[in-house]
Design a protein that fits this description.
10 strands, eight-stranded mixed beta sheet, two-stranded antiparallel sheet, binds nickel (II) ion, alpha+beta, globular
């Protein structure tokens, strides 16, 4: 397990920017030299015991995080939970898992083969959260997964690592509105996820979110290399609830659209 929260997030960030070259450019553009505060970091996995949501969560619980919310995504066949640290400048953590049993036999077989290849003790190791893939799939298997679940295909190619980091608008000095950030990003040539509109949610649900489309990187499958979507950057603005406190949860309808930031065809 990890010595401290800072070390873990520094290691996650290092791995993430290696897969997401545009993240450093966005960081520079919005921060302009200032440190950026992350609203949350998101992870993807399968609901198979060996590597399930709870196994990933254990790393954060050991660092003082607590479970604060549960979410269902029926159409995408996903469940998720979010976790918060008592120190609210520490990023929230959003972990989802794919409901493997709801997919076709061929898809289940590929996923089970992947998970079988993960060493039994790997999940407890400090670096598991940024350990990438523990298996090799063929480009044909990747395509089989992609036909039923973009999410499953993404995990087959990228494995265990941060799927996205999220800039907290509430902590940005130079911007007060998400729309201003979006305009700045588009002006600089970044492509935004427009599924469900550029801005998902808003003051009425106490959370507004937008995201870039994932970078594209080359992945070596067992038979050949393909250039496919890797990771993306998200932006979140939180609003006060009627009780005056900032909303700290997630909005399923918005997260549903954010998942599409790694779609191949968008
Ligand atoms: Ni997110």
């Amino acid at each position: 397990m990890h010595n401290n929260v800072e070390t873990l997030f520094a290691n996650l960030w290092q791995d993430y920017v290696a897969m997401t070259p545009s993240a450093l450019k966005v960081h520079q553009l919005l921060g302009d030299g200032d440190e950026l505060i992350n609203d949350h970091v998101a992870f993807r996995t399968f609901n198979i015991d060996k590597v399930g949501l709870e196994k990933l969560a254990a790393h954060f619980l050991a660092l003082g995080y607590e479970e604060k919310g549960q979410y269902n995504f029926e159409q995408k066949k996903l469940k998720a939970k979010h976790f918060e640290h008592a120190d609210d400048t520490k990023p929230k953590v959003f972990i989802s898992e794919l409901l493997v049993e709801e997919f076709s036999a061929p898809v289940q077989a590929i996923i089970r083969k992947m998970v079988d290849a993960v060493p039994a003790d790997a999940v407890n190791k400090e670096n598991f959260l940024y350990s990438g893939t523990h298996w090799q799939v063929s480009s044909e298997e990747y395509q089989t997964l992609l036909n039923e679940s973009e999410y499953a295909a993404w995990v087959s190619a990228w494995g265990f690592r941060a799927n996205h980091f999220t800039v907290s608008l509430n902590h940005l000095k130079r911007y007060t509105l998400l729309s201003e950030v979006n305009d700045k990003l588009k002006e600089a040539g970044f492509e935004l996820n427009t599924s469900g509109g550029e801005i998902k949610g808003g003051p009425e649900v106490h959370l507004a979110q937008s995201s870039t489309m994932a970078d594209k990187m080359e992945v070596c499958f067992s038979d050949k290399s393909l250039v496919i979507p890797s990771c993306f950057y998200e932006f979140a603005q939180r609003y006060a609830m009627p009780n005056g406190k900032l909303y700290t949860g997630f909005v399923a309808a918005s997260a549903d659209k954010i998942f599409e930031s790694t779609n191949v065809g968008m």
